[in-house]
Design a protein that fits this description.
Flavin reductase family protein; oxidoreductase activity; mainly beta; 3 helices; Flavin_Rdtase-like_dom; EC 1.-.-.-; three-stranded antiparallel β-sheet; Pnp Oxidase, Chain A; about 170 residues; globular
C-alpha cells in the first residue's frame, strides 16, 4: 500500500528560531574520518549521528551539501565515526575549525582500512559507505558497520550551542 501526503506548509518561523529550538536537543559529538587518494587524512566534527539498524548494523550521519569535504566522503568506500568522550571538547573544536591539518598533534591509530581512530574515544565504528540521500541542504550518509569497539566513559554532548560532558 502506498500513501500520498500533501506538501508541507511554509515554516511559521525563521531559521534563527529553528536553530535555537534545535539547540535544546542534546546530541553526542563525533569526529568522522577518512582519507584522500593521496593518503591525506580528512576529518570533521558532526553531531548528526544515529543508529539505524542492528541487522544489518547501520548508522547514519549528515553533512552539509556545500562542505568542502563532501566530494571525498561521497566517493570513499569507508569512513570511521569516532564517538568523543567527555574530556575531548578540544578535539571537537579542532575538527570543526578551518585549518590545514586537523590531525597535526592528534593521537590516533589506524583502522583495518587505514583510517584514523582517535585515541581516547568512547566508541568507534568503521563503516562501508553504503548509501547517501540528499535532503534539504544536507546529505544523509548511511554506513554499514564492519568493525567497532567501545570503551565506556562519560560522553561529550552538544547542548544550547556549547560542548559539555555527561560526567557528574
Amino acid at each position: 500500500m502506498s500513501y500520498s501526503f500533501p506538501g508541507a506548509e511554509p515554516p511559521a518561523f525563521d531559521s534563527t528560531h529553528f536553530r535555537q529550538a534545535l539547540s535544546q536537543f542534546a546530541t553526542g559529538v563525533t569526529v568522522i574520518t577518512t582519507r584522500l587518494p593521496d593518503g591525506t587524512f580528512v576529518g570533521l566534527t558532526a553531531s548528526s549521528f544515529n543508529s539505524v539498524s542492528l541487522d544489518p548494523p547501520l548508522v547514519l550521519w549528515s553533512l552539509a551539501q556545500g562542505a568542502s569535504s563532501m566530494p571525498v566522503f561521497s566517493v570513499n568506500s569507508h569512513y570511521v565515526i569516532n564517538i568523543l568522550s567527555g574530556d575531548q571538547a578540544v578535539l571537537a573544536e579542532r575538527f570543526a575549525m578551518r585549518i590545514d591539518n586537523r590531525f597535526d598533534g592528534v593521537d590516533f591509530d589506524l583502522s583495518y582500512t587505514g583510517l584514523p581512530i582517535l585515541k581516547g574515544v568512547s566508541a568507534w565504528f568503521e563503516c562501508h559507505n553504503r548509501s547517501r540521500y540528499p535532503e534539504g541542504d544536507h546529505v544523509i550518509f548511511v554506513g554499514e558497520v564492519e568493525r567497532c569497539d567501545v570503551s565506556p566513559k562519560p560522553a561529550l554532548v552538544f547542548h544550547g550551542g556549547k560542548f559539555t560532558s555527561t560526567r557528574p
